[in-house]
Structures are given as structure tokens and as C-alpha cells.
Amino acid sequence: MDQTPLSRAIAYEKEHGDxxxxxxxxxxxxSPRTGWLNDPNGFSFYKGQYHLFYQYNPYNTxxxxxxxxxxxxxxxxxxxxxxCVMAPDEAYDIGGxxxxxxxxxxxxxxxxxYTGVTDDLxxxxxxxxxVQCVATGDGLTYTxxxxxxxxxxxxxxxxxxxxxxxxxxxxxREDGSFRAICANRSEDGSGQILLFESPDGFHWKRKKIFLxxxxxxxxxxxxxxxxxxxxxxxxxxxPMDMLPEGFEFHNGNGNVCxxxxxxxxxxxxxxxxxxxxxxGIDFYASQTMLAPDGRRIMIGWMQNPDGSSYRVTPRPWYxxxxxxxxxxxxxxxxxxxxxRELMNLRKxxxxxxxxxxxxxxxxxxxxxxxxxxxxxxxxxxxxxxxxKFILRFAMNGEFYTQLSFRYKENVLKLDRKFSGSxxxxxxxxxxxxxxxxxxxxLRVILDRYSxxxxxxxxxxxxxxxxxxxxxxxxxxxFSDGAAVIDVEKYDLMD
Length: 494
Ligand code: FRU
Description:
It is built from 1 helix and 31 strands.
């Protein structure tokens, strides 16, 4: 039988992906079946399972012709690969099946909405436009709609750029109708969010410009997501080409959350608060879904596109998702915590209380590379507090990564300079801790190739990749001036 681009990808990923052993992958973070992964797509709960699709180049561990890979899970931590669902094989998406999202139709089918790139990006004189397309399926196989594209370049405001028009996030309103927001580059060269409406998911028209960047937060925006939480509007974005702003935003590709007033009747959004979603090194293109139990769960691509050459030894896969995170509003900000299902992976509890740290300290039983570690740190004497506290992990005689906290400045630094990185990518990032209190609480989630830090119960987060050899599994505490700590540590296991 003749191979199609999709059947070729499915045969290829089966042959090559099945050779990768579970030990070569992260324990509970989703990595591509084979090849390259970037953005999470179509994050949804459908037919009793969580579905996660992803930007996927099965043939190589670098970004290339974009397909949609597919995995399912019942707890968002153990993933089962399903066959690739879409390949670039139509005139309207031959340059790539770019990012998008998913909803369920009234007839029970799942609708995937994605961006098609209309020309081969690697050919000379390529003229790639970006259009929005849909496909329907049953959770296993999907068929592109014969009426694609469903939103064309003629549907963007005049003067806006049809080459930067992508990443539809689709949802349904209470009356059953459909809405989607897409990112687009406006006439001023920076991003805007367009809102589209449809009665059925197939016939779309532009409703309005939902928000304009006006060159404020980076230039082009990517991967928008909009929803309400506790009556507030929440817009998540991944801006390109950002300028730094204090400790909040850094140069290059970033991540931004707007909170504001959402008027459901007129479908208007007026942001009145802005913050970074994750203040670490590797977090981009986040997408959320509403779980059946009402939790809003966010997952991101655990990478920054600017740093995507960061790797140490070649692997048959590259790219991974963050741990899924429950997001919520508190004190006017967006907070996040790893999904509570992670607690089911906890084994071998080790607890220490009121340990004095003055200089170096190691604690029996506190080590490992797939762990859930909570440390509470306070000065022994609040009148005369410690200067700097260090938590060093993924450590052996040669390598380590560390978190250091300067009490007076209230600044937490994540530093992987000595983690084995051989690339000139960003290896350090600092974060101004929002709450000023005597005690700092850090929850550190380590998987084989990553660290995710949740600060003060999730008020802020810092995420970074870590390609340190697995034998580097020691943990050390250090304090310049006396500190007192409580430690709670679990191994994370299948
Ligand atoms: C973000 C992004 C999206 C695009 C996709 C292509 O990382 O650039 O805007 O749809 O990746 O892979």
C-alpha cells in the first residue's frame, strides 16, 4: 500500500519510539515518542481519559515538519503513546500542522482546531501563510475537514500579518456555540489576540480584536489561552522578543498572564494585572484544560525556544512537558501547584524538623533524582538573619544545580551553571519572591532531566531543564549565618 505522510510517521514512530526504554525518559514528564516535541496541543478530557497532543517532528530531534503526536493518561503522570494523528499533507498545511486545541462536539466526536502553514518553510522563496483548520476524530484517529481552512487570511483585520496568525484556543459557551482566540501580528508589528465565533465549530467568523499588545509585552504573541477563574478573566500568552522588566520579565521568549474584568455578555476583557507565569529558565507555550472535577490544569512546554539547543548527550528524543499544574487565584495573582495526583507517586517519607544549618549540612536519607522535596527555611535569629541560604541538588563531585536565597534582598536564584551544561544558553535566573516573610517554603520536584520549584505554596514557580548524569543525586544545604530548616522528602516512583 502507498504510504501517506501520516502512515509513514506512524510506522516510523512505532519502529523507533518502541526502542526507547522507559529508563531513558523522564519518569513522569511527557516526552515525544521519538524525535522532537514542542508545544502542548489539544489538552483535553475526552471519553474518560486525559488527551495530550503535541507539536512533533518524529524524524529528528530538532524542530522540523510539524505533526501532532498523541498520548493519553488517566492521572496526567503515566502516559500511553497513541499513533500520531496529523501530518502536513494538504495544500493548506503542507508547511506544518502547528499548535491548536480541542473541544467535544454535540455528536460525541472530538474537534481539533489547529494552524496550517501553507508553504514549505524550508524551500527557497517560501511564502507561508497561516490559516486555521479543523479535524474530527474519536480519540484515536482524526480526519481533516474537507472545508479547511475554516478561517483564512481574509479573516484578519486589514494591515495585520497573515504570516503570523496562529495557535487557536477553542472553547464552548454555555449556549453551545463556539469561540476561538488566535494570535496574530498587527499593523504595529506586535501581537494581538483575535476572537472568532462559530455556531458549530466548522463555520467561523471574526468577532473582534480581543486584546492588542501595542508593543508593550514583547512583539508577536504565541499560544494564547483564555478562560475565567473565580469570575475573573485569565489570559495566558507566550510573547516573543521581550525586553526585560525588573525581576518579572526577561529577554527573549517569555510567558505572561493577564488577569482582568471579563464581561461575558459583550465578550470584552480588560486586564488590570500582569505577571510572569513561571520565573525559571524553561517554560513556554502553556495550555490549560478544565478537568471533570472542576480544576483548571495547566501544562507547558518545558523549554524556552531561545534555549532549545540546550542538551548534553544526544538522545533519541528531545523536548518534554512540565508537570501538569493546578492553577488558582489568590491575593490578586495566579498561583500554581503540581497536580495532587503527584502525591500518589510519593514513597519513602523522610522528615526532619528544626535542623540548624550553619555552614554545610547534609541529611541522612535526603538525596535522589526523582523526588518531591519541601524545605522550610527561617533565620535562627530574625534580628540577625542569615545572609544566603543554598540548596544544592543533582550533585556529585563534579556537578550540581542550586537554589540560593538572599534573605535581605528576598531574591531566589536558580543556577544550573555547573549542571553539566556545555551550551551558551541561559543557565541562571533570579526571581524576586513576592511575599516578604521570615520563612521561605520551597517545594522542589526533580525528575531525571528537570527541576520545578514551587515557592511559598505556589505563589511563584521556577522551572529548568537539567541534563546532569543520573549518578549525581546528592543534596546539600548551606547557610551563611544560622538558619533553621524543616525538610520533608519523598522518592517519586511508579
Ligand atoms: C510556539 C510555536 C507556535 C507554533 C508552533 C510551531 O512554540 O512557535 O506559535 O504554532 O510553535 O511548532
